Amino acid sequence: MARNDSQQQQDTGNKTRNYQLVLSIMAPIAVLLLTIYLGNEFRVLENQLRYMPPVNQQSGGSVDDIEIVGGQTVYVPAYSHIYSRGGEPHLLEVTLSIRNTDPERAIRLAEVRYFNTRGQLVKNYLDGVLELGPLETVEFLVEAQDKQGGSGANFIVTWDAGEPVYEPIIEAIMIGLSKEYSISFITSARALASRIEK
User: Fold this and answer.
1) Containing H/E element for 166?
2) Residues 88, 82: contact at Cβ < 8 Å?
3) 193 close to 73: Cβ distance less than 8 angstroms
4) CA distance 120 to 163
5) For the chain, what is the domain count?
């Protein structure tokens, strides 16, 4: 009986050593295969994330279908202050940016007027006509301490061109800074009247 127990223990010990030997051989092989697999997966992922230049896609339209503008009067929302903390005014500096987007033709600014919340004229920024050359930008500033405009301020901008041009980009950029926080946002122009050419 003692021999059988000893034999069983020896057989169990041999089996354990065999399992350990198989595991010691299989573990590095499994790690190697996993490394190769992950390496391939990372290469596939890198290829998917790699920069791809834009592809020129054909659209149904042509350049002749693009509407270009001969002139406009636009409304641009502006905010010389906004409210926070239950109605406390937060003063903002306003920059009106007018960008001629046409790379070949000039535009003319006929008027840039700034109105307050009640619709009353606060300031007329132009005495005469101001010409913007191709791709030129002009800016008009309302300083933060100028509180006349209020939360419902706006600009009316009128421009035209000798020939049809790409529509300019007209935006108001509001920025406010304090010790506790800062805020900035942009509003875009909305056309009130346009002279459209095809």
Assistant:
1) none
2) no
3) yes
4) 33
5) 2
* Mean pLDDT across the chain: 85
Report the distance separating Cα 73 and Cα 60, nearest Å. Answer: 31
- Tell me how far apart the alpha carbons of residues 169 and 152 are, in angstroms, rounded to a whole number: 21
Confidence at residue 66, expressed as pLDDT on a 0 to 100 scale: 46
User: For residue 150, which amino acid is it?
Assistant: G
Confidence of residue 198 (pLDDT cuts 50, 70, 90): low
CA atoms within 13 A on the CB side of 4: 1
CATH for 148? 2.60.40
pTM: 0.66
Please give the residue range of the domain that contains residue 21. Answer: 1-57
Do 186 and 93 have their domain in common? yes
Q: Residue with structure tokens 């399992």? A: 19
User: Are 48 and 77 in a shared domain?
Assistant: no
Report yes or no on 136 lying in a domain: yes
User: Residue 87 gets which letter from DSSP?
Assistant: T
Question: Looking at 1-5, 125-129, 144-148, which range is the least confident one?
Answer: 1-5
Residues, the chain, total?
A: 198
- Whole-angstrom distance, CA of residue 50 vs CA of residue 47: 5
Q: Is 127 helix (H, G, I), strand (E, B) or coil?
A: coil
* Lowest mean pLDDT, pick from 41-45, 118-122, 133-137, 184-188: 41-45
Check whether residue 72 and residue 43 sit in a common domain.
no
Same domain for 19 and 72, yes or no, is: no
